[in-house]
Predict the structure of Ubiquitin-related modifier 1.
Amino acid sequence: MVKVKVEFLGGLDVVFDKQRTYDLDIPSEGEFTVKDLLDYLVTNMIKNPKDVEMFIEDGTVRPGIITLINDADWELEGELEYVIEDGDIVSFTSTLHGG
């Protein structure tokens, strides 16, 4: 089991049932990576399949979404390969604006 806090900011909360913050207890055996987290979010938390493309593109976080792990840019942490530890905070902030 991995305990992780996930935040959806900059309008992304609309995709995730209009809730900005989730404290998740995710069943996991062995290492649980950011890639695993993305798969979990898409499978379990996005209710409208059309909304997936607002969050994921080509198997990773869509360009225009800033991803932080414990307030550090995920590029510095290994992106999809980062192994999530209990208590980590993963934030997704959209810089894309509709009009």
In short: Residues 57 and 74 are 16 Å apart (CA to CA). The first strand starts at residue 2 and ends at 9.
